[in-house]
UniProtKB/TrEMBL annotation:
Name of the protein in its database record: Delta-aminolevulinic acid dehydratase
A GO molecular-function annotation: porphobilinogen synthase activity
Biological process (GO), any one: protoporphyrinogen IX biosynthetic process
Binding residue positions for 5-aminolevulinate 2: 274, 313
CDD domains tied to this protein: ALAD_PBGS
Catalyzed reactions: 2 5-aminolevulinate = porphobilinogen + 2 H2O + H(+)
Short name of one Pfam family: ALAD
Pathway it works in: Porphyrin-containing compound metabolism; protoporphyrin-IX biosynthesis; coproporphyrinogen-III from 5-aminolevulinate: step 1/4
Length: 326
């Protein structure tokens, strides 16, 4: 049927009509909010390249978490910034490390909130790489034991979900086995299965102080032109025991999100990363774009591509906007 019998504009005639026939919906339930936690008291250090984002001491973190819970956001993703770093990232798996302290404090006051912990070494190593380094090379297999120790220490502290982001081969299997052996068989793994060596991570590295001190991460993070490799990575992580998988970054990788969704049925998260966040904030501050409309359009696009979980620094703002529209 063609014009004038078929008139698509009939279904766009009012806000309620558009709501009635809308195919994809962005919800507060879809959101995970990443937060940076550091030592000290009463610390709220702005991240210059990420307006509205801070490094928070645990007391300030609890106030932020209270806001998150009030907004109805189901969970947070924690990144730790230790007081001291060393070659083997020992702060990542220390019993009283910054993440371990933060998780215990959050679960004590907000037991129902989902606490997801990033499992990696880059924030804790003095060289800034995600694994053990020997003679200028990042070693895969020796790193697995430390990642597994980190995941177990997070679970022992009360984490609900552990999220390995290091991109070492075999780390999901190593973490799954370690968790199971220590009585944490019910702790899910949300794996950064598809993580590209991207230019969009710059602001995060400022926030976490995790820039590599030499070289780059291209020998373990994925090459941006590749998409079939993404499917192999996702398949391997699922086979090793990943319960949820992440594609990171999001904006330039919607085709990858869509391809992963077509091939796998499980929960799929898109990580709307720091550089993507900062670009919107910068353009909005100059009056070049409408921040609310642009952000909601972008995140809805991630849903349309196939993600059912969205990790984003925009989460509190988005939750405010969506709650206003109810």
């Amino acid at each position: 049927m063609y014009y004038p019998v078929a008139r698509p504009r009939r279904l766009r005639s009012s806000a309620n009509m558009r709501r009635l026939v809308r195919e994809n919906h962005l919800r507060v339930d879809d959101l995970i909010y990443p937060i940076f936690v550091t030592g000290g008291r009463d610390v709220q250090k702005p991240v210059k390249s990420m307006p509205g984002v801070y490094n928070l001491s645990i007391d300030r973190l609890l106030a932020e978490v209270s806001l998150v819970q009030d907004l109805g956001i189901p969970g947070i993703l924690l990144f730790g910034i230790p007081d001291n770093k060393d070659a083997v990232g020992s702060g990542a798996y220390a019993a009283n490390g910054i993440i371990q302290q933060a998780v215990r404090a959050i679960k004590d006051k907000f037991p129902e909130l989902l606490v997801i912990t990033d499992v990696c070494l880059c924030e804790y190593t003095d060289h800034g790489h995600c694994g053990i380094v020997h003679e200028g090379k990042v070693l895969n297999d020796p790193t697995l034991e430390l990642l597994a120790r980190t995941a177990v220490s997070h679970a022992q502290s009360g984490a609900d979900i552990v999220a390995p982001s290091d991109m070492m081969d075999g780390r999901v299997k190593a973490i799954r086995e370690a968790l199971d052996e220590r009585g944490f068989a019910n702790i899910p793994i949300m794996s950064y299965s598809v993580k590209y060596a991207s230019a969009f991570y710059g602001p995060f590295r400022e926030a976490a102080g995790s820039a590599p001190q030499f070289g780059d991460r291209k020998t373990y993070q994925m090459d941006p032109p590749n998409i079939r490799e993404a499917l192999r990575e996702a398949e391997q992580d699922i086979a090793e025991g990943a319960d949820m998988i992440i594609v990171k970054p999001a904006m330039a990788y919607m085709d990858v999100i869509a391809a992963v969704r077509r091939n796998f049925d499980g929960p799929l998260a898109a990580y709307n990363v720091s550089g993507e966040y900062s670009m919107i904030k910068a353009a909005a501050s100059l009056g070049w774009i409408d921040e609310r409309q642009t952000t909601l359009e972008l995140l809805t696009g991630l849903k349309r591509a196939g993600a059912n979980i969205i990790i984003t620094y925009h989460a509190p703002d988005v939750a405010h906007w969506l709650n206003e529209d109810i």
